[in-house]
Specification:
This protein is mainly alpha-helical and about 60 residues long. The protein is built from three helices and no strands. It is elongated, with a radius of gyration of 12 Å.
């Protein structure tokens, strides 16, 4: 998956969604989600897309 300017993706919206998604998992007792939260926080747009793909979230 690769980003182009033509895709017009809202990466800050994606970051917020992923933070909420992983934050909920962490609050429910899934400790490893804390690592994902840290990764999401510092991720560039390409990395955000990779994380979403790894979590099975379709952003397109």
């Amino acid at each position: 998956m690769s980003y182009t300017d033509d895709d017009n993706l809202d990466f800050e919206g994606l970051r917020a969604f992923l933070m909420d998604y992983c934050g909920t998992a962490f609050a429910a007792g899934a400790g490893p989600a804390l690592i994902d939260l840290a990764r999401i926080e510092r991720a560039d747009p390409q990395e955000l897309l990779r994380i979403a793909q790894e979590l099975g979230i379709n952003v397109r």
